[in-house]
Amino acid sequence: MSQPAGRVPQRRNARSNRARILATARQELGRNPDITLEELARASGVVRRTLFGHFPGRAALLDALAEEAAETLQAAVSVGAGVTEPADRALAHFTLALWPVGDQYRMLLALARRDLGMDRVAGILEPARVRSTAILEQGQRDGVFHTHLPAPVLSAGLEAMTVALLEEVNTGTLEDDGTRAAVSTLIAAGVPEKRARIVVDEVAATEG
């Protein structure tokens, strides 16, 4: 039996409501991690029943945001993964590609330890960690990055720095479109500051 035609618009409306709720949650949770679902429903322009129909509780909402973040991050990591280029340019590309994702989901940083758990966050970040380590290993072999730290350890340090920068953006202390973070990442990896700025400017211009 075919479904009534009227159900198609209803499904589209449900998808639209869900997307709007998630988009609003990304914004509002960044401002107030303790926002209630009732307040979030009002901010999303939907009734309480609609929100709870999609997300029966806070855990379900955060789980959906985590899944969305993981998918978006995976897509960003995949960009340029098969391209052969010098390691400093590859790291600049990588950082600039991931910064908008981190910026979009930086509210998860405030919720990670309390609500999601570090294991869940580690799972989300795993593709980025693997890609970052591979770039750093290439750069160390080529003499582009310093070698006094193993690539996985250096990758962890650069990740921590990026998280710290995102937290500063979250508090309003720092404004960055990703270029400052990319330059800082290259310098921390061992690229001279002047060279780091040139590489990031060239890569940013190419992406732009």
Automatic annotation (TrEMBL):
Pfam families per record? TetR_N
Q: Which UniProt keywords apply?
A: DNA-binding
Q: Which SUPFAM superfamilies does the record associate with it? A: Homeodomain-like
Can you tell me where the transmembrane regions are? none
Segments forming domain HTH tetR-type: 15-73
Ranges of the DNA-binding region feature = 36-55
What are the GO MF terms of this UniProt record?
A: DNA-binding transcription factor activity; transcription cis-regulatory region binding
Q: Which PROSITE patterns match?
A: HTH_TETR_2 (PS50977)
| PANTHER family membership | HTH-TYPE TRANSCRIPTIONAL REGULATOR RUTR (PTHR30055), POSSIBLE TRANSCRIPTIONAL REGULATORY PROTEIN (PROBABLY TETR-FAMILY) (PTHR30055:SF209)
Name under which the protein is recorded = TetR/AcrR family transcriptional regulator
